[in-house]
Amino acid sequence: MTRKGVTLMGVSGPVGKRSDQRVRRNKNVPVDKIEAAGPVDAPELGLTDPHPIVVDLYAALPESAETQYWEPSDWQWARVQCHFLSQLLWSRKPSAQMLQTISSAMSDLLITEGSRRRVRLEIERSQSEGQLIDVAALFRKQMEQAGTG
Questions:
Q1: Nearest to 121 by CA among 33, 58, 59, 49
Q2: pLDDT value of position 32
Q3: Which pLDDT belongs to residue 4?
Q4: Which letter does DSSP use for residue 119 in this model?
Q5: Residues in the chain with pLDDT values less than 70
Q6: ∠ Cα 116 119 123 (to 5°)
Q7: pLDDT reported for residue 11
Q8: pTM of whole model > 0.85?
Q9: Is the CB of residue 43 less than 8 Å from the CB of residue 75?
Q10: What is the pLDDT of residue 1?
Q11: Strand 121-124 and strand 2-3: pairing?
Q12: Integer-rounded Cα radius of gyration of the chain
């Protein structure tokens, strides 16, 4: 399967390790790496009385890097799965089979680490670079300003 120039090939079996965690490096397996660019536009969830967990899940999707490859139909598919997940979570008798079906459908959208690894897709979220503060220098400066240093 190809999405916007990225070839997605499924692999059966257990979820592989991330490329930087593999010990055996003589096996040259290409890995597509995506640098998260930030949130993308997503349609409103638009469900009547959705479960709070579903609201949180759907709100997290636009912040996830894999959604940069999503087409409008993928967003609608996510909404459909959220509809059924909300019904399941509100149900007095939740169905394990329904949860498995929803989980499988959501995995097709690559929203879990395991599903992304199966198609050899890794997200490398850039960490914000914090400013280092010299606490001792800051304390000295405050003492000097106060006239006690």
A1: 33
A2: 75
A3: 52
A4: T
A5: 1-13, 15-29, 34, 36-40, 128-136, 139, 148-149
A6: 40
A7: 58
A8: no
A9: yes
A10: 47
A11: unpaired
A12: 22
pLDDT tens, position by position, 9-25: 555 667 666 666 666 65
Q: Is 39 helix (H, G, I), strand (E, B) or coil?
A: coil
Residues forming a β-bridge with 123 = 34
Distance linking the first and last C-alpha atoms of the chain: 68
Which of 48, 109, 40 has its CA nearest to residue 81?
109
**φ and ψ at 25, to 5 degrees?**
-110, 0
Q: Which two tokens stand for residue 25?
A: 């490096």
Residues in the chain: 149
Gap between the Cα atoms of 133 and 52, Å rounded: 39
Distance of CA 128 to the CA centre of its chain: 17
CA 139 – CA 123 distance, rounded (Å): 40
Q: Please count the other Cβ atoms lying within 10 Å of the Cβ belonging to residue 130.
A: 6
Beta strands in the chain (DSSP E): 2-3, 6-7, 32-35, 121-124
How far is 81 from 100, CA to CA, in rounded Å? 11
DSSP assignment, residue 23? S
pLDDT at 72: 81
